[in-house]
Amino acid sequence: MAQRRPSTAKQVRSALRDAAAGAEQSAHFLLDAAESVDNYLRGKRGLVVFAVSFAMLAAQYLGWRTATTAMAVALFVALVAMVLARVGACRDDDGAWSVDLVVDQLRGAAENATSFATDLAALPLTAVAHRVGRIVFGLGVVMMATTIASRALHMKWMAFGRYGLAVALVGVAMFSVGWWKLHGQMLALRGRSRFQAPSASSVLDGSGIRPTRASTTPCFAIGKHRQRGGA
Length: 231
Prior knowledge:
By secondary structure, the chain is mostly helical.
């Protein structure tokens, strides 16, 4: 008897299952690679993104097309790796997706944002302007860099930095005002501590006694004056 060939529908279903399995393996491989890159950049993500963005702006200004394209690729890989790493963190050790891990990721992001806002609320206004100004300036630089990267890589979806220059200028203004105020306060505190009278406890233990302008005469000079007076 002739063997029956599998029907076309079964062949299609089998091909689809194989394709789905291959796509799943590829997705897990990509997520694992993204997590590896993100773990390598842990603690210095913002610095790396800012450095690559600033280097891209410098290369664009100098007319170095090859360097601009290389920086664009590096920025694209870094940003995509960070995003995919957040997605990959929602898997358990077996690679299965977990809703609990998604909730943990969202809760951790909310806690980090709350902690950052609490730290800012505890700082004076000048320190807030100094700290937030650096962040806003870095954001503006990255926004401008994404616009250049979208042109170099022909990816229009990355061109969301139309107002990057304005954001960067706002950051520079905030940082400058905060730094100027903090610098003035530090100078004022130094002036107060220089002319502030020592406390009673510091006088008793000798730690608060400091030489003044009147007591800067060398000891041998004082001895000479005494000898002349005695003579």
